[in-house]
Amino acid sequence: MIHTPRAAAAPAVKASADPVRVMPLGDSITGSPGCWRAVLWNRLQSTGYTGVDFVGTLGPQGCGQEHDGDNEGHGGELVTNTADRNLLPARLAATRPDVVMMHFGTNDVWSNIPPDRILAAYTKLVEQMRASNPDMRVLVAQIIPMNPSTCAACAQRVVDLNARIPAWAGATSTSRSPVTVVDQWTGFSTATDTYDGVHPDASGDDRIAARWYPALAALLDEGVPGGPGDPGDPGDGEPACTATFRAVSSWQGGYQGEVTVTNTSSAPLSGWTVTVVPSGGARVTQVWNGTLTTASGTATVTNAAWNGALAPGASAGFGLIADGSDATGSPSATVGCTARAATS
Known about the structure:
- By secondary structure, the protein is α/β, with parallel strands linked by helices.
- The protein folds into two domains: about 10-220, 3-Layer(aba) Sandwich (Rossmann fold), CATH 3.40.50.1110; about 240-340, Immunoglobulin-like.
- It has helices spanning about 30, 35-45, 80-85, 90-95, 105-110, 115-130, 155-170, 200-220; strands at about 20-25, 50-55, 70-75, 100-105, 135-140, 180-185, 240-250, 255-265, 270-280, 285-290, 290-295, 300-305, 315-325, 335-340.
- Strands 1, 2, 3, 4, 5 and 6 form a six-stranded parallel β-sheet that branches.
- It holds the Pfam family Lipase_GDSL_2.
């Protein structure tokens, strides 16, 4: 459902002298010319969200209407190449975004790169975003459908990738740097909303902008840290943690891994919860130094009684066993961490 903004109250972003810096990130759907950005920009302006600055190392490419055309949409780029070649950190350093809107992976799907690799690239990019800005807000699209005449299998590959994105986002999101999924797939027609089965036409641009708008407006309304509406530095005393996965050993049909949890806030924690989404269809069946629950392929591990309290900068960990026919080779997992503040 597309929500219409409330007209009764002007957004907090409107009166601020310090705009929220928003990076549109992706490939040609975002940048060449990516006219949904022009539609979105003008809708933001017309509804009172004037304190927004689109940023990127690339400039506007037409679109026939005035707009802030800065973007990071590189035509032909694969998200896996962007991650493997570490292309994003320099772009972040040059533009310093507060929010990233990412529609990325179309060229990877076309190249038959499996969802596990694409999602691993997503994870690396989010880590790089947080290294640039620990309070980064990330909007990640379930990408628009594609049905090019030269790739009969592409339509189903998009479905397969999009089905995995919500669980990935849930495992990657943190209280300090949330990851929000924006459904760009549902209701989008390659027959009427693209001119070639891949790239949006004017109708497609309108649809894409309409899906980004409520998600971005919600962030602007709540106040992006460091930007308009921010009541202060949420990093001061707000509970936050990170989780990292390491494979210890593997065998035919399974592997052993360990997860390290680190308190990244300036205040002590009373506990933590980690989500684990193993790659390749594996599933977590056993943990130690934590309590395991599972649902829909996602394992949730809460701290044990003796390893939940963490001082700032301190770490704890737990071990796990994962079973699955695809779990051999180089095991990996997407992990996310949620912290609980210590009570006085």
